[in-house]
Design a protein that fits this description.
Layout: H1 11-23, H2 26-45, H3 52-61, H4 77-91, H5 96-107, H6 120-134, H7 143-152, H8 159-173, H9 184-190, H10 200-205
Amino acid sequence: MISGIKIPDSKIAREAAELVRQHESDLLYNHSVRVFLFGAMAGIRQKLKFDPELLYVAALFHDLGLVDAYHTKTKRFEVDGADAAREFLRSHGIAELKAELVWEAIALHTTPGIPQYMHPEIALTQAGVLVDALGTGYDDYTPEQRDQVIAAFPRGDDFKNEFIELQTRSALRKPSTTFGTVNLEYIECHDPTFRRPTNVCARIRNAPWHS
């Protein structure tokens, strides 16, 4: 129990944690569990009905696409992690609707303006990511809640810069997957001269329609 939140301890939860732990660094793994804890706290505070196990799996897998073992050349890293989570859940006999719910939570966790209106597991995955990575909603948690989470799953000495470095490395390996997403900003921060080949206005004007 961490600040009133019980980390799921079912067979699926343990095996999910073991799989992710095999591939992720301490920095990413601790971040992922913090995402669950902060997301679950937000859910309780907002009196939402959610499945802690599904939220836990979504949080664990949400950044798995950043690691080499799950990296693909053509998909957004979020989709790589979502695909891995869905396959994991399917292999454990979880109903397809639940597996798809986790897929959506992971695939949409960096997409602004949409997840908060979807199922609680989707909204809370993003809420956990936002507070841990960007500090969005920081003051909605008490100092005691924040301290207990960080004590159990530390951020380390330089989480901010190390996290940016991981995200930038992934974005630079497949820049075309970042267009239209916040992931493009990692490349722009790394190289302020970087520009997409075309923007949406040019693409519309160059479409093969007469008008």
